[in-house]
Specification:
It is a single chain. The chain is an alpha+beta fold. The chain has one domain. It has helices at 4-8, 22-28, 118-124, 174-177, 188-193, 197-203, 209-228, 269-274; strands at 34-42, 46-54, 57-63, 75-84, 92-94, 101-113, 126-133, 137-144, 158-163. Strands 1-2-3-4-9-8-7-6 form an 8-stranded antiparallel barrel. Helix 6 (197-203) packs across helix 7 (209-228). The protein is globular and about 55 Å long.
């Protein structure tokens, strides 16, 4: 089954990740627009997980440097195990085990294959498609390539994610220009602060290298942010919000999700469009 590798690597008694049911998802999603997402994941290293819905699961590639809107820039994309469809809206902290780290929902939307037979295109190693997300739009291609590095075994996992030249292409660095979550509007340290950064400080050793330094900085920021908050007060019937006051609007991506701290006087068309909702 497509999700066997995914389930084998995880302990769902400890991980907040969903288990998923491929057959149930395939039946319920029949006739629906195809979903895609990109999750920014800081684990042993920082990378971006590109996922597209197909046959009840999310086909997944880990993109170390994140997507690029520049057609001249080919991004390495390593094929990883299929993920359950429910994973596509996951954002939070994986406290231990496989993939332990912080997951941000960086982009979300729909995708349309430009081939009649997706399985045949994947087998050929040349899948062309269009994206309609908050940050990624237009025409793209995933191309399988040989393994990188002399003497590396060619297991078919090495792909390239490439933007086609169209109105949505440009030289803006989209991962720097639009770094925040489309789900919460938060950065990684704010997502961690919603969980329990104190547990990470006391019980977890950060990995070495650049990712380790980044994680330690994020843990410190999250702990400081959480300690600065006033203690939670007990909710009483008098202070509990009404059902009508509790809406789903807070769950929708905020209008300013894709803004940065510093605005420039001139931005490219892809940068301006990246700020718009689809």
């Amino acid at each position: 089954m497509a999700l066997d590798d995914y389930k084998r690597k995880r302990n769902f008694r400890e991980s907040p990740e969903p288990e998923g049911d491929q057959e149930r998802t395939r039946a319920s999603r029949r006739g629906q627009p195809r979903f895609f997402c990109v999750q920014k994941h800081l684990a042993s290293h920082l990378h971006y997980d590109f996922r597209i819905e197909h046959e009840g699961v999310l086909l997944s590639w880990a993109v170390p440097k994140g997507p690029s809107l520049d057609p001249k820039t080919k991004r390495l994309a390593m094929k990883v195990e299929d993920h359950p469809f429910e994973y596509g809206t996951f954002e939070g902290v994986i406290p231990s085990g496989y993939g332990a780290g912080i997951v941000m929902l960086w982009d979300v939307g729909t995708w349309t294959p430009l081939a009649d037979d997706v399985d045949a295109a994947l087998a050929k190693g040349d899948l062309k498609f269009e994206l309609d997300g908050y940050k990624l739009k237009g025409s793209w291609v995933l191309v399988r390539t040989r393994a990188w590095g002399k003497g590396q075994p060619d297991d078919g996992r090495s792909w390239l994610l490439i933007k086609h030249r169209d109105d949505w292409a440009g030289d803006v660095d989209i991962v720097e220009f639009a770094p925040l979550s489309v789900k919460s509007g938060h950065d990684l340290h704010e997502i961690l602060a919603e969980e329990q950064p104190d547990l990470w400080v006391s019980n977890r050793d950060a990995p070495g290298g650049a990712a380790g330094a980044m994680l330690r900085e994020i843990i410190d920021k999250a702990a400081a942010l959480k300690s600065a908050r006033p203690p939670a007060t007990r909710t009483t019937d008098a202070t509990r919000p009404s059902r009508t006051a509790t809406t789903t609007r807070a769950r929708k991506p905020p209008a300013n999700t894709n803004t940065t701290k510093k605005r420039t006087s001139r931005t490219t068309a892809p940068a301006r469009r990246a700020r718009r909702k689809p």
